Amino acid sequence: MNPIKFIITISILIFFSLNSNSQERINVKKKVFKVTEEGYSDAWKNVKKGNFLFYQHRPASYREAIPYYKNAIDYNSENAELNLLIAICYLRSDPKSEALVYVQKAFDENEDVHPMVGFFFARALHYNLRFVEAIDEYNTYKESLSPNKLKEQTPIIDKYIAECEFGSKLKKKTARVIIDNLGSNINSEYDDYGSILSADGSSMVFTSRRGAKGDLVNLIDNKYFEDIYSSNLVNDTWEEAVNIGKPVNSDWNDAVVGLSEDGQKLIFYRGREREGDLYSATLQGNTWKNIHDLTHKLNKRKSQESAISFNADGTTAYIVSDIDQDSYGGKDIYYTMLDENGKNWSKPVNIGDVINSEYHEASVYITPDEKTIYFSSKGHNSMGGYDIFVSDYKYDSWTTPRNLGLPINSPDDDLFMSILMNGRDAYYSTIRKEGLGGFDIYHAILLGPEKPLQLSNEDELIASIAIPVEESFIEESMQIQYTRMTIVKGTVSDFNTGRPLESSIELVDNKSGKLIKKTNSNINS
Fold first, then answer.
1. Domain membership of residue 337 as a residue range
2. Any bridge partners for residue 493, and if so which?
């Protein structure tokens, strides 16, 4: 199963495990809904079309029901049941933050509109960063439950309350970053995610579900199967992304999970619903060739690897896998090492419970020097969904993961963080209200800690006389550390003709004679 569908499936399962009550039909009654004869017939048709989609209980059907329900609510905006249906559709699709205005209206019109209206209200507040209010509503909802349902639902609701408590703390220390949506040359109205860049940041590959003429649709979520797209950065602007085509993209899911620093080797996932493998492809000129199955080389057990990241020389791979043995819960992060002959990978080793939580981990990025790891998790101090965390390797162990905080993270899913060699430019995927649709790819510039303003003694004295300081307060900010790397870039050409050559390159330490890196030049790059 590919990463995004895995995330959607888990989210839906959690949602339904909470609420057998939510399966009670929410009836928009004709007599109550009808306010005037004019417009009623069309409005009621829209209600029925929306209901047909809503009660399919599929992620895509909730999204598709929204326009019909919104057409109907233009006729009668006071109907509590209809407002609640729209709110639930948003909570089960995206953007989830849009649910608040509708569930608030439903609650105001009729507090007893549904046994779980308080829970839906709490979820909507949660997704809108109104953490303190959400906690109150979660607790109020718990008080309304019967003993049996309280026992059943408490673990999940308490998890949501803990997320709100973490979120409330994280709001007080925002990260110093500049975040921009990459725009329509990269993103689409469909899900776009998993961006991976070459070391110099000049090229990008990513996964998209935008589809093309004749592409197949996944019946579970009614979205196109995944394909891999690429783009180049020209004059500080990303060119319009193009489908990289066959032999990498197939009729099923093809999702990028890794790219070598030189951009010459692509690692991707290919599969259907519950089965799939990792493959590699090599760039020869402008064409991806030499497709090889990597799954059984990396891990001979029956498991699924949904993300991978390599160290600088490609001898250590960090993978996200559902290996049952040694798991701390759900999907965990493991590492495996290549032998001296460069042919066989060691048995995957769980990276440990400092990084892995009792919940799911979903994506991983290791810096080339293996000193810093970025990953997404539903555990630790997540404020909701998957948050992006960072940990440093110090004194032979990983430090306690730090939540990157707002505005990078949100109560929804935030995934696939990768950092360029300069340590300042990061790319990741998230769902935002202002986005183009579904998951979008964003560029984040990590500014680092703010430098304190230096004043001379005379300046400080004058300032204190002019404006007496009774209390000093500096808002705490989330400090994001980074390590800068050196990029070696050039071309190999024929001495006589000046034409580019395809050749093997070895980087050797002059003092030790140790081979640091071996790569191949591309005749077209």
1. 177-446
2. 500
